[in-house]
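Follow-up to my post from last week.
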Amino acid sequence: MKIPRLRRQNRMRLRNQKGQPIDYNVYPLDIIENKEIPLTELKPGEEATITRIEEKGYGFERLRELGLSDGAPIRMVKYAPLGDPLEIKIRGFYLSLRKALASQIWVKRRFRGRRFEER
Amino acid sequence: MKNDNQPTAIPYPPSETPWVAILGNPNCGKTALFNRLTGLHHKVGNYPGITVEKKSGWLKGHKILVRDLPGTYSLNAKSIDEKIVADTVQSWRDPAKRPRAAVVVVDATNMTRNIYLALQILDWGVPTIIVLNMIDEVRKKGLKINTKLLKERLNAYAVIPTSAKYGEGIEKLIQTIAGIPDNPLLPEVPPRLVEIGHFKEYIKPLTDFLEKFGPQLNHNALIEALRLLGEKSYINYLTRYLNFEEIGQLQHIIKEVKQTLIQNDIPFHTLEQSARYGFIDLYLSDVITQEDVQRKSYSERADRLLTHPIFGPIGMILVLLFIFNAIFSWAQYPMELIQKWMILFSSQVSAAIPPGALNSLITNGVIAGVGAILVFFPQIILLVFFLGLLEDSGYMARLAFMMDRFLHKIGLQGRSVLPLLSGFACAIPAVMAARTINDRRNRLVTILLIPLMSCSARLPVYTLLISAFVPRKTVLGFISLQGLTFTGIYFLGMFTAIVVAWIIKKIYPPRTNHSMMMELPPYRVPILSSIGWQIYDRGKSFLTTAGSIILAVSIVLWFLASYPKQEASPHLSSKEKIEQSYAGRLGHAIEPIIRPLGFDWKIGVGLITSFAAREVIISTLSTLYNIEDESKAQTSLARALHNDRYPNGKPVYSFLVALSLMVFYVYAAQCMATFAIVKKETNSWKWPIIMVTYMTSLAYVASLIVFQSGKLLGF
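User reply:
Got it. Predicted complex:
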């Protein structure tokens, strides 16, 4: 099987328990971290899987309507120049959210082991 | 399974004119498609929520009415324009109000999210046509959509791929709409959702209760139940169909069902959403296949630069500066041309008509008034063109993205950027665009701030005063002083808006921490014809609404300035004549009040008349000056202003007076049309009155400060 090249930032972050870099040719699987973190802790370019959305305040229903379902893959695209709204990619489109709402979204970080289709 | 299925084939009497509804997410190309279907052209925006008005037109070649509904992500309305859609769909309970068909426009490049609304519409049991718009982009992206499978899975009336941009598939869509029989027999299908954790069992009391009112409600009981659970205000829609007692029972049942769901650990708030996306993921994932994988979209790569922490804001400022510089310098040539024509026209008319009251009315009242406005038409066209480019290209959404933090600080949200920036073209569409702001408080504040943005109607005033009184010098070798003053005046309005917003935030703080949820649409090449129509619409409305007011005021003014005629004393000079006219008396009456601002009675007359619309001061002044110099040919207004002297020989206008007047115009709420639109949009007299009061006092105080401090500094 031909293993495609990985994006550098994800490749660098993937290490085994001893802290040594993982050889993808041997171990080309995706890794989903076990730790649940709020979306706002993701750095630009990092990917994650939605685990839950806190049902409080205003806006969580719309998030669900826009396709932020549990288990949906999500990518942090960037933060706005002034740091507040952030941009995510979800189900093939780009969405801007304020941090206040984004911190209600809980995710598990995902590292790509191999490339697969993204929509 | 009968109780699950909605009797979709209810024979309904065809309403007098058959109509179809066009629905869809924001940015799905719905308005462009509407233009294609009707042949009428309307605005096609790339900014979420540009369609704020309900538009309708006749389907090309058929007697079927097409209604364009505002863009919405779901029938669970979060803003006013979304509520328009939700309410329209709710009215479909009445068989007579059902459309012949619902056309759901889907952005085919982004199917999963767009299909959510389609599922909600499909379950209303109206013949639903799914339009896969932007099919050209789909091909370019290497996606393949199995339309036959999609139609089967959704049980839609038809699925038609189109491209509103290139006109592909439009003919087929028109024929499909026209070909729908009066009473189509739709197959009975279960609602398009999946069951999560056996919720159907738990909400059975609710569905059973709603089932009893099946014929009245005319909508699937299961979906109705889910909506009742998810949306607190949804019960209001049912009050028309159930009596007071039944509503009470319903509320009780909802409470109980919620209890059961909580006990069983099912999140009832978003049950419908989860159930729908379950359906989408389960049945529609194999409808789309992707051939080649592109990791990062073109737009995202472009955004690396355009919303970059440093280059993004720099680019934004450059874009705005370029636009304002362009409208000031590019418009010069056509403006001068129009001015020349008007003078020529006026003198010819003057020669053709025998001298007297009619001659005076036409040359000094009508032609002078309209001419002064026509001169500034090129600038308005340019500004509308640039705003159209920003909206349709998708850059406007990035502006909102970059500016949100900033606007959030002053109690607004990024979405306010569009109405506020549109305020630079004209406050009237801008106030209407504020409908997209889904929070009432933010919407009101935005509306109050819009008139502080220097609209195109103020351009004539600024242009006149700057070209007349700011020297044609350059600063640092390449920036013209005139352009700098112009930019400064624009920024003054913006800066004040920030201060006012901050003050409002202190007095009237936002109640909740509202979240700006906004789609960043992909960058698209704007459809030039659509911008052309935008310019046409705005230009036309400027000429008709502004123009008619201006013409009327011009004639009234001519009357005020020419009467009462001093027939008895023919030895009076023209200057004395005007001073003794009604207008002169009015101007003199307010002169003591405006004297500290550096204004004379003629400006006073202009200030009074320009309450109709700001640009009226130009025609007022030109009427006033033309009548004064009846002996001479019509000189350009700027020259006339320069030459005007007080009796003691001191010039009436100086750089300082011009500045004071411009500052006054930045702040004063001198626009009847804005007043009217604010009244209409807020549905109360309170807000327009507040607006005029605060802005007029602001204008007076600011001008006072400018003039008096300028005088102290020795200008």
